[in-house]
Amino acid sequence: xxxxxxxxxxxxxxxxxxxxxxxxxxxxxxxxxxxxxxxxxxxxxxxxxxxxxxxxxxxxxxxxxxxxxxxxxxxxxxxxxxxxxxxxxxxxxxxxxxxxxxxxxxxxxxxxxxxxxxxxxxxxxxxxxxxxxxxxxxxxxxxxxxxxxxxxxxxxxxxxxxxxxxxxxxxxxxxxxxxxxxxxxxxxxxxxxxxxxxxxxxxxxxxxxxxxxxxxxxxxxxxxxxxxxxxxxxxxxxxxxxxxxxxxxxxxxxxxxxxxxxxxxxxxxxxxxxxxxxxxxxxxxxxxxxxxxxxxxxxxxxxxxxxxxxxxxx
Length: 314
Hints:
Blueprint: H1 2-30, E1 51-58, E2 73-77, E3 80-82, E4 84-88, E5 94-101, H2 110-122, E6 129-135, E7 139-146, H3 166-178, E8 184-191, H4 202-211, E9 214-220, H5 228-244, E10 248-249, H6 254-269, E11 272-276, E12 287-294, E13 300-302, E14 306-308
């Protein structure tokens, strides 16, 4: 009897070891590579043969849905169904970058953005990590990646001044997240959305986030009586969120914001992660539209809208 138990344990160990080996091999050689771009004319694309997707599934009340199986999902690229090579549904740590707008247009809103950042840190789980950057005429590191709920003292010295490099900030956040080992990544933007000085376009910033597999969540910090400028700013923030699979939050204060942050942390920890090798192997640099479907009614799926394929010679 003892011998049989020992054999059973050995085979179980062998089985687990082989699984871990295959997973590490897949992760090392197949997950998307880092972002390569030097200027705004260079297209950021997915250079790996494997496309990795993080998807949030919510019910009619907007609450994350867990427990779904791989065979309940279908992934389509440009309308054609793809074979899923990797699937993960377990709760897992995430890496996030908080971007605080401290430009001149945020006068009176910096303290609210600071409070928002603190609220987000308070909701982190033990293994989640977050970095904080502020941006005005340039992008500056406030606090490097950490799982600490404490916030750096320098954040209390930030003042509203200068221009707004929102696009550059999102681009840099994407580059930093691309270096992380966590498969689930997010960019939290606290801004009035009015970019006035970036060297990179909004499209370039969005492509960087998509290439890094980062979901963008945008919180509108603009004043209510800003008129047409507010609508234009909101449109920019909505675009970043919707195309990366994130959420746009129109109200920056009170209970609504605290609840929104709570939901962001919850969904980042319970996303579904997929990996597939595209049937279309052309390296033409063109946009590939992605759609995920689930075989269960009344559910909503959010993920990035697609990616730019690698391009020969780039």
